[in-house]
Prior knowledge:
Helix content is 66%, strand content 11%. The chain is an alpha+beta fold. β2 and β3 form a beta hairpin.
Amino acid sequence: MDKSVSTGGSHNNDSEKNKRKSNLVLVFRWLCFTYVIIEFLLHQDRQVRVAFFLSVLASTALYNVIVTLMILNYREKIKKLEYLVILIDMTVISAFIYLVGGINSDIYVLFLFIIGYCAIFSNSKNTIGIGIYGVALYSVSCALAAKYAPEAMSYWRLAARDIFMLVGSYAISLVNAEVRRYNELHMKEFKIARTDKLTGLANRHYFDQRINEETKYANETNTPLNILMFDLDNFKKFNDAYGHSWGDKLLSLFSDIIRQNIRSTDIPVRFGGEEFIIVIRELDGEMARSIGERIRKQLEKQRIYVGNEENRQRVTVSCGVAQYPRDGQNIKDVIECADKALYRAKELGKNLVVSYNEIGKIRQAVQLDIDAYINK
């Protein structure tokens, strides 16, 4: 089972990054299209029919519009077709090179931009492959264009540019591989810094950093933020009776149960020792409480093996639930409320889920029971 930290709102950050990337791609595509038009207008030796060029230009504009609409409306689908789009783009560029002077055209520099783009969003092998494909297309385009002006063709110049694109592709792939290696190392270190080593859940340090972001999101969207605080019942006695290794196995088991019962946007945290917290956004109090109850029941059903298959121990957990801003205008106060609700669950006999807003009702019910007993 994957024990990576659930990052919750980081999905929103990834979405924003993808949106910015898509916008940059669109700007790049239309700038390239504009550059081709400028190159044609500046090209003095127009051996190719203008009507033919304009028909190709119109077809390319339509193709660009279709790709633009797909990027804006179907980002995930267009991502799967990304390499196909790259290959079509390079083919279109080679057609314009053929139409605008062949070896005398500077449109070939667009190949380098595409190779660079491919390096950023793909792996090194694909970068080199795209470079080879670009060189082949460029060579064919220049050779075909030479039929119209053979005296202008320079095969030495063509060979030099081919070598330049191949070397450039290889260099870009090396730089890209090194950048990716550094990013992976950085992400690994970042993950270690925010992750509890035993359970794989977020640690207290990450929780302290993240809770303010979640509170800000709740304020901006006018939605509730729930804090579920768990504490394994009689954990110290379990540790003393069976040893720390079995205590660690119990903590790992409970963390797995938490993962099985939460969404990808929820944030599970090992708060310290045998205490755990889950941060749940957007759900109402009853739904959040039901998640705590589901986790409690699933652990209650477990019988952890201790030492051998004959010795199975029943373990339970208590849970306190509080909600921002219902139970407090400050998130620290809400965490305190969840702690108080947890303490109340312990007082009432453990293996319970108690919401902070229920504490008053529970006290009132207990008092009524006491009064009824006294008045008998």
